[in-house]
# Entry
Amino acid sequence: MNIIYSWLRLLPFAWVEYDFMLNALLAIILLAPVFAILGTMIVNNRMAFFSDALGHGAFTGVAIGGVMGLIEPLWSAVIFSLLFSVGIAAIKHKSSMASDTVIGVFSSTAIALGVFIQTSGGRSFAKAMTYLVGDILSILPREIILLAFLLIFVLLLWVFIFNKLLVTSINSSLAGSRGIHTFWNEMLFSMVIAVVVTVAMSWIGLLVINAFLVLPAAAARNISKNQRQYHFITIAISSFAGIAGLLLSYYLETATGATIVLVAAVIFFLTYLLRKKFA
Amino acid sequence: MNNANNFHKLQGSGDACSGLCCTRLADFGVTIGKTKILEQVNLHVHCGELTAIIGPNGAGKSTLLKAMLGEVRATGELKYMDALGGQSEKPLIGYVPQHLNFDTSAPTSVLDLFMACRFKFPTWVYTPKKIVEQIRASLARVKVEQLLYRRLGALSGGEIQRVLLALALDPVPDLLLLDEPVSGIDHNGLQLFYETVSDLRKNFDLSVILVSHDLDLVYQYADRVILLNKMVLEDGKPKDVFQSDNFMEVFSLRWQKSSAGERKNNQ
# Structure
């Protein structure tokens, strides 16, 4: 880590003196591609609402962990949101209810349960606010190493299951005829989104995390013609929005997560205007 | 284990296909919940034959294909026998779905679709030249190689159907199942499609089962027609099936109308 710090200190900015800024920068460099990659398929599969619900599940998980007196509520949150994602996927698969209804039911129940637990016994909600808004400047070096592993894991996963997920998103019968286990691949994908959203929630903020997942991919979609362009443009937009958002939030003294999302939103509208040129 | 036993028993019993490859459905049925969607379907399809399945809406035509694919749970059995007498319960099936459910703005090219279906190498990383050429050759089989780099959403209904056909033929399957779209393709496009399928079944000696909505084209191209309405009502040569009472009952109005329309066009 020290070597990386000393390299980053060569950058011609005043903020390189602060360790917390360097940590945040590293975290964003690692997180942006993870979000970008997952985002491409979330948009392909029209799962934006689903990934939003997973954030709510993660919040409930944190609340449960807090009540149980865990010092590190992250792990209980990961477990809860995994169960939550499996639950939604299984019910969506079994029931004939429209998927947005299923997701709506789960999502609202989770957030209500989370708030209920957080405030039970007359406790104040203030502690939970960090999860809503997020604080990337608080990230610790060991958490950055965790993110590095997460990135490697997601990249490996994407090498192995992307083709299958793509065919499934185009036509699930076609995927079935090609010997693809559509249900299990999609389940695995949902579980990975659940873990990533949960882990990143306390840094990016529950309120805006879904936008960070969806916006770069939605923007890239406007100007790309094939999956390769789509992926690399999404990663570029996500990284740019992440780094620009961090720096802007430093100078403007705003919440980092929200600033990142605003930058991504501006990029989305720019690409939206350009989309006819690339169609 | 059970499968292995069946396998040996069947090999001993000889084959009814007399040296040709064939696909058989025996007492095939599909029940979803308490509703019987299909029952007592017995079919015997030979290689090099184009079998068209026709029937009213809700007759279970698409369900039959999905059951053969194993996507819908079915009772009864499906057996495939190749020309050498080898049998399997899992023949290699090529499938052309009725429609794709992607949104038309999706950045998925024809190349991406093929890559994703045919190869393990992740299509978002890079496409090796060798694979591109292989895919181009697959597309050339149905004369759509010029569509290689086009976006799926930018293709017409007919073009998508041909691309899907090329995909279903790569690798060359034992059995080709086609679910024809109800709309979105003009008559010329459909005619071209039937011609292509008809050529393919001869060139590759394929068994083709086609769910169709265009009776004129079925009459012109199919070797065999199956009239399905929850069960097999008629099974035979087009001209026999089209003259049957069952056929008249199900289709009389539509068939007369469309023949009349054609006569008008000819005048």
Notes: The two ends of chain B are 64 Å apart (CA to CA). The CA atoms of residues 53 and 211 of chain B lie 5 Å apart. The mean pLDDT of chain B is 82.
